[in-house]
Amino acid sequence: MTRSLFDQDTLDPAHGAWHFEHILQDQGLWPAAGVDEVGRGCIAGPVVAAAVILPHDISTQGVTDSKKLTGTRREELSQLIEKVAIDISIAEVGPERIDKVNILRASLEAMKLAIESLKTRPRAVLIDGNQPVPVQIPQKNIIKGDSRSCSIAAASIVAKVYRDGLMKEFGRRYPVYLFEKHKGYATREHRELIKRFGPCPIHRNSFKGVSKDG
C-alpha cells in the first residue's frame, strides 16, 4: 500500500523548483527521487521512465520540463545530471506489454521498475502526474511536476534523451518508418508510412493509427 505525502501544492517562490524537495528534507524524508516517464503518447516504441536523486546543494538552473528544451540542450543537461546525480535509474516497458495491459499500467510499471532499480533507496518519491506508483515508499504526485520540481524535471530530461536514442537505433533497424525523425509519435507522416508498409515489431498494435480499426 502506498502512502501519499503532504497536501501542499502551492510553490514557495523563495524555493522555486526545490519547493517540494525542501518540504521532504524538513520532514526527514531525504534522499528523495524524482520520477517521470516519456513515450506514453507514442504509437511505436517503449514507454521509458527515469528516477533521479539529486544532491540538495547543487544549482539546477535550466533544468525544466524536457518538452520545453531543444534536443541539444536536453542532451547537455542529461550529461550534467548524470555527472552530479546521487543515483539514476532508467526502465522501459515495450510495445507487447503495452498492448497487453494498456499504456497507463505500462507507464506505472516502468516508473515502478525505475524506482526499484535505484541503488540508493529513496525515502520518498516525487512523481509527475496524478497516478500513484505501486511502491512501498511515501510518494507525492505533482500535476505538471516536470515544470514544478527540479527532481522530476531531471528525470524527464534523462528519460527523454534515453528514449530518443532508442528511437534513433530503431530508425536504423527499420529505416522506412523514419523513427529517428518523429520518435514514434503519431505524426501524419508516420501514420502514412504505416498505411504504406504496415506495422513493424515495435508498433503498438492496439493503438489508433496502427490497428486496422484505428
Please summarize what this structure is:
The chain has 214 residues and is α/β, with parallel strands linked by helices. It has helices at residues 19-26, 71-84, 95-101, 103-116, 145-148, 150-173, 179-182, 188-197, and strands spanning 32-38, 47-53, 87-93, 124-128, 139-142.
Task: Give the SSE layout.
Elements: H1 19-26, E1 32-38, E2 47-53, H2 71-84, E3 87-93, H3 95-101, H4 103-116, E4 124-128, E5 139-142, H5 145-148, H6 150-173, H7 179-182, H8 188-197
Parallel strand pairs: 1-4, 4-5
Antiparallel strand pairs: 1-2, 2-3
Structural summary, described in words:
- The protein has 214 residues and is an alpha/beta fold.
- It contains 8 helices and 5 strands, in the order αββαβααββαααα.
- Helix 3 (95-101) crosses helix 4.
- The radius of gyration is 18 Å and the shape is globular.
- Residues 10-15 have low confidence and may be disordered.
